[in-house]
Amino acid sequence: MTKTLHIVGGGMAGSEAAWQAANMGVAVVIHEMRPKVKTFAHRTGDLAEMVCSNSFRSDDSEQNAVGLLHWEMRAANGLIMQTADRHRLPAGGALAVDRDPFAAAVTAALRDHPRVHIEYNEITALPEGGHWIFATGPLTSAGLGQAIAAETGSDALAFFDAIAPIVYFDSIDMSQAWMQSRYDKGETEAERTAYLNCPMDRDQYEAFIDALLVADKTQFHEGETAGYFDGCLPIEVMAERGRETLRFGPMKPVGLTNPHRPDEKPYAVVQLRRDNALGTLYNIVGFQTKMKYGAQTEVLRMIPGLENAQFARLGGIHRNTFLNSPTLLDNQMRLRSRPNIRFAGQITGVEGYVESSAMGLLAGRMAAAEILGQPLAPPPQDSAMGALIHHITGGAEAKTFQPMNVNFGLFRPVDGLKGGRRGRKDRYKAYTDRAKEAWKTWLEQSVLDATQTV
């Protein structure tokens, strides 16, 4: 028991934590409640199932903090990035994957690992002894959520996360829509045509906004509040913030030319991104929604090209539980009141597949190093992972703590560089160059330490 690492939750974070710990020589047991205990968002019992977007966002490791996280995870032999690369789909400068084969491959890799055992059972209490990582994500079960709340002495914090609809490609009218990435971004023709675009003129856009504002929406239960994460706002909430909000957000028309009407600039554009390798499914980018199903079909079919759309999945909304990590976790991601327990993934207050996986990678390595008798220092703050873990375990203001994506605002400034928009390119490159050196040094030292211990 004392030499085994138990991981509760087989999502992105739990899967990555298991992979890292097992490869360091530690026996791992993954406890996954699905498919015995289901959630409204999951469809399968596979590990690392993607329930929202199929995108890991930007893959640019020189100018984007998310792309830098990709680079750091690849350098650390990350399972999630390895598998994503093998199942990637054209998505311009982003890393998008064929979600079902991706999850199946992650499951197979862990099932076949000689040091990993998967148990399909629900954990509803915090253990007194042993080494544990809780990576139960935004859909932590009610029983476990209550146990965590009882231990931490405070109510669980929550916001609402919305899921975007998925459309069957063969139901889209391509006489109105066209394929193009913004600014034709990408090195191959597939990348330059990775997005499907549906244009709107001003009248169509105004009518669409009107329909969004009056559509029937999911009602919250008594006592719940709608504290949305700004990076994943439902479209109708954006519309309520101003009629032009969507046109400057997911429906911005910049960098696109309609080949059907090349002399007319669209007033707004709805983009869809391929969701599977066959190209039979497309998800509507940035269109998370809490509209009721009937309202969704009516409103979304107002989009030119989607008048006869058939939906493989409609949007949904769920409660997303996370810890006030700055007050509850130490810099080893351990629960201060029970240091035999670590937390990883979205429940720690990071947002997104990539960030969740990265926190799983760190928790797995830290837990394994502790079991092997060679505690591992947190990664340097100048790395992307270091900036993120520093933020959630002490850098953020506890009173106003909210889930955070990785971004360059979490990085320490580089001396001598110009601020503002004009200096941004040089500044971002300096951040990523510095981060890569810091990360490589930390990885080399951690491998050396682990080798000496073994």
From TrEMBL:
GO biological process: tRNA methylation; tRNA wobble uridine modification
Single annotated GO MF: tRNA (uracil(54)-C5)-methyltransferase activity, 5,10-methylenetetrahydrofolate-dependent
Domain MnmG N-terminal residue range list: 5-374
Signal sequence residues: none
Keywords: Cytoplasm, FAD, Flavoprotein, Methyltransferase, NAD, NADP, Transferase, tRNA processing
Requisite cofactors: FAD
UniProt: FAD binding residues: G9, G10, G11, M12, A13, G14
Pfam families linked to this entry: GIDA
GO cellular component terms, semicolon-separated: cytosol
Class of this enzyme: transferase
Annotated catalysed reactions: uridine(54) in tRNA + (6R)-5,10-methylene-5,6,7,8-tetrahydrofolate + NADPH + H(+) = 5-methyluridine(54) in tRNA + (6S)-5,6,7,8-tetrahydrofolate + NADP(+); uridine(54) in tRNA + (6R)-5,10-methylene-5,6,7,8-tetrahydrofolate + NADH + H(+) = 5-methyluridine(54) in tRNA + (6S)-5,6,7,8-tetrahydrofolate + NAD(+)
Subcellular location: Cytoplasm
EC number, UniProt record: 2.1.1.74
PANTHER family in the record: GLUCOSE INHIBITED DIVISION PROTEIN A (PTHR11806), METHYLENETETRAHYDROFOLATE--TRNA-(URACIL-5-)-METHYLTRANSFERASE TRMFO (PTHR11806:SF2)
Record function comment: NAD-binding protein involved in the addition of a carboxymethylaminomethyl (cmnm) group at the wobble position (U34) of certain tRNAs, forming tRNA-cmnm(5)s(2)U34. Catalyzes the folate-dependent formation of 5-methyl-uridine at position 54 (M-5-U54) in all tRNAs.
HAMAP family xref list: TrmFO
Family: Belongs to the MnmG family. TrmFO subfamily.
Official protein name in the record: Methylenetetrahydrofolate--tRNA-(uracil-5-)-methyltransferase TrmFO
Gene (UniProt): trmFO
